[in-house]
Amino acid sequence: MTNQTADHTDVRAANLAVALGFLRANSPCSRAAIAAGTGLNKATVTSIVGDLIDRRLVRETQQTQNHVGRPATLLVLDGSAYAAIGMEISARGLTAIAYDSAGGQLLRWHRTGPGADAGPAKAVAALATLARRAIAAVHASGRDVLGVTVGVPGLVNRDGVVVLAAGLGWRDLELRKDLVAALGRPAFPVLVENDANLGALAEHRYGPYAGSANLILLSGETGVGAGVICDGRPLRGNLGYVGEIGHLRIRADGPLCGCGRHGCLEAVAGIPAILARLDASESPDTDPQARTDELVRRAEAGETATIDVLTEVGTLLGQSVCGLANILNPEFVILGGSYAALGRWLVPAVEKELIDGTLAPEAGGCQVVASTFGHDATAIGAVARSLDQLDSGRLPVVRPG
Amino acid sequence: MTNQTADHTDVRAANLAVALGFLRANSPCSRAAIAAGTGLNKATVTSIVGDLIDRRLVRETQQTQNHVGRPATLLVLDGSAYAAIGMEISARGLTAIAYDSAGGQLLRWHRTGPGADAGPAKAVAALATLARRAIAAVHASGRDVLGVTVGVPGLVNRDGVVVLAAGLGWRDLELRKDLVAALGRPAFPVLVENDANLGALAEHRYGPYAGSANLILLSGETGVGAGVICDGRPLRGNLGYVGEIGHLRIRADGPLCGCGRHGCLEAVAGIPAILARLDASESPDTDPQARTDELVRRAEAGETATIDVLTEVGTLLGQSVCGLANILNPEFVILGGSYAALGRWLVPAVEKELIDGTLAPEAGGCQVVASTFGHDATAIGAVARSLDQLDSGRLPVVRPG
After folding, report:
1. A35: domain CATH number?
2. How many beta carbons lie within 10 A of that of residue A21, not counting itself?
3. Do you know which Pfam families this protein is assigned to (chains A, B) (predicted)?
């Protein structure tokens, strides 16, 4: 009998996920439209929609649709009961973003610090403090929290251990475990993932290229990483380390990288490497955001030295993008993080390398574009990751009405 | 009503696939074991197994199992009614392999030629002739053909068009369409895929590392390519061109490649490049297999010049494997094709580069091994691809008994 229940539950969860996903993409729509669009039969759709309404994930609108026959009540996503929290920690600081379950933004906070020199214990404490405030804000809005996901620039294994995050000075930090403890073992899931993987998820769910099943987001911050969506799914790999392009060797005789090797992509085309070449006179601990903004201003003013360096960096970046295009055949390579703001000058140089260096004609259909999310991609992807439990059909329990 | 049918059919197809897959991995086993192992309820399993027996894909054995209570009849796969054909065309010649639906090998043929200079029309005709013979042999054994899949060393798009196969001298050849016509528009599916993708599928289904969800097969023939299994699935990418590592730039000042670029992996570490460096005196159109065998003999005899070249090639190959490991985090990188026979000398050099050049500690858990399938991997993977329609639940219609 337990087998029978498991079987039934799995099919129902799959059907719930299909119906909710269809509604997310086609809201507002009728029960009949869900049935027609998903292949589920009308009785199943009626039952599933009843469940979703009971859980306050879907609501009926006053609108009706009247093609032929009886007018049909239209359904929309209901964001009044639940929200998901996404966070990022990077050399730039901390970010927290929350969306309700209908995709409406509830909060978007950014805090500077703690710096890499603060040590992991202080960083975890600062993350937990910001998470608690976000959780309190969600609760104050009358919603329950579906989950908290944190993006980290480094190698994160499947247990949420940060194996290596050079830009933060972390190694073998049990971040997920520490955060769960700091948040008092909450009932909702707490997840830790690689920043670029989450950024790619944000682009895949909410970005202008969301229709594509094959896209790669390049994060351009202290480090350089890639998040990969291939054949419609985020790739993870054996230990969860997919997309570590920052240490592809671009120039065997190149400068020393933070990892101890020479000529890694990060060392020749990372944001600190660009800044170091252009304004060596300034102090290295000046706010990197302010320095990137200054770079954009100089390039916009037509300063030749700046534009030349950006073109050269684009060429080096393009050599790595060729590797990605030959190996993964993406439709879009999206320049994210600080690269996004520099896209106007980087993209043409990357594209030129890509066409020259990819075996497939016209780079296998690959286009290079700048992210529209910039520095928020990771936190938005973290929200999406927390919302994923809904779309995989694992609904919250019904609360007393 | 059509929606209801579609819905029901999809669930049943998924359940059939799950039951058949479980039986493939756990044969012989009882209906109760299938239910316990898959989470399907016993009534569903009984109905599905009935279907599979009617279609002669499963049969009951005389054996019974008697833990507690009534003895249970054991089931095994039945290979008596269907077979799948896998083929390969390469610079080495043509291969055809057929397995019955229980995984038993029915035939394994190799033909030399047609060479690249024969032109695509002759090659298609030779492929069709060999396919017709394999189909006739399957029919003579009393079985129906589930499908024919052909592996090609080159870029193959999702419609079975060979966009580029430099080693065969092909460009924009509509191979699938041409083969379907040459075989008289058969009722079974005819598919064309990239050789390395099929090789990876063979390793994933039948190889010694089949338990791994993250493996990469490197094909080492005229060209060098990679087939990628990531997170348990074969990757395809935007146009189907995943794994084209042969043209990663290894040495900017390297030799001219057939693609017109300089220093591509193929040009420095492909089998012809290895042979050219070691026995330049021999004619380039001598059988590459015989020349590789000679290379193995020389290395086994301890000839220093040969071992030095193989070590150097392993180092160059290792630089590309680093790229794969950083980007895809595989558990196994399998040296296939002619590289397999040279594995004893290549593997240590590849491993050294891999450890040095991968950001993740211990190369993210990646191991380098030699394929046990050698030159048969592509055709075996092609068989697996044709058998896949069974495991995806699309069963043949019931034949008159």
Report:
1. 1.10.10.10
2. 15
3. ROK
| A359:B226 CB<8 A | no
Backbone region of residue B362 per phi and psi (left: phi > 0; alpha: psi in -120 to 50; beta: other values): left
Which residue of chain B is at minimal alpha-carbon distance from A358?
A: B247
d(CA B88, CA B103): 19
Q: CB–CB of A327 and B327 under 8 A?
A: yes
CB distance B155–A7 less than 8 Å? no
Partners of residue B36 in chain A, C-beta under 8 Å: 3
Q: Would you say residue A216 lies in a domain?
A: yes
**Chain B interface includes A233 (CB < 8 A):** yes
C-alpha span between B89 and B95 (Å, rounded): 7
Number of domains in chain A: 3
Residue A109 belongs to domain with CATH number: 3.30.420.40
Backbone angles phi, psi at B56, to 5 degrees: 55, 40
Nearest to B245 among A10, A226, A327 (CB): A327
Evaluate whether residue A229 is within a structural domain: yes
pLDDT tens, A206-228? Answer: 999 998 999 999 998 878 999 99
ipTM: 0.90
Closest chain B residue to A264 measured between Cα atoms? B357
Question: Is the domain of A324 the same as that of A220?
Answer: yes
Specify which residues B202 forms β-bridges with. Answer: none
Which residues neighbour B73 within 8 Å (Cβ) at sequence distance 6 or greater? B30, B31, B60, B61, B63, B64
CB-facing half-sphere around the CA of B249: CA atoms within 13 A: 24
Size of the A and B interface in Cβ pairs below 8 Å: 178
Residue B360 has its nearest CB partner, among A230, A241, A331, at A241
- pLDDT in 10s for each residue of chain B, 401 residues: 333 334 556 677 778 888 888 898 888 999 999 998 888 888 889 999 999 999 899 999 977 776 666 678 999 999 999 999 999 999 889 999 999 999 999 999 999 878 777 889 999 999 999 999 999 999 999 999 999 999 999 999 999 999 999 889 999 999 999 999 999 999 999 999 999 999 999 999 999 999 899 999 999 887 899 999 999 999 999 999 999 999 888 887 888 888 888 888 999 998 888 888 876 555 555 677 788 888 899 999 999 999 999 999 999 999 999 999 999 999 999 999 999 999 999 999 999 999 998 989 999 999 999 999 989 999 999 999 999 877 666 667 655 54
* pLDDT per position as a tens digit, A26-40: 889 999 999 988 888
Within 311-340 of A, beta carbons closer than 8 Å to B belong to 319, 322-324, 326-331
Position B178: which residue type?
D
User: Which residue out of A171, A328, A333 would a mutagenesis test of the B interface target, given it has the greatest number of B Cβ atoms within 10 Å?
Assistant: A328
A window 236-265, beta carbon within 8 A of B: 236-249, 259, 261
Domain containing residue A328:
208-372
In whole angstroms, give the CA distance from residue A324 to residue A329. Answer: 7
* A395 close contact with B: CB closer than 8 A: no
